[in-house]
Inverse folding.
């Protein structure tokens, strides 16, 4: 076995907040009050968040798995 191989890992920052809610929180200086992932109140805007996330994962996988 080759123990020199390190598994790749990635953390994706895609976003998903409602732009109106984000702008309001920013204007009020309350960005830290917006729910984030792992919060029970986190509910990302489905579109375009889902498409953006899937596209990012596909591009990353294709770049990683591309044959040389």
């Amino acid at each position: 076995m080759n123990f020199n191989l390190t598994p790749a890992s990635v953390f994706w920052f895609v976003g998903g907040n409602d732009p109106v809610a984000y702008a309001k929180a920013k204007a009020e200086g309350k960005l830290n009050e917006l729910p984030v992932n792992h919060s029970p109140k986190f509910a990302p805007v489905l579109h375009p968040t889902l498409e953006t996330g899937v596209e990012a994962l596909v591009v990353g996988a294709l770049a990683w798995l591309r044959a040389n």
About this structure: The mean pLDDT is 85. Residues 19-65 form one domain. The chain has two helices and no strands. The radius of gyration is 17 Å.
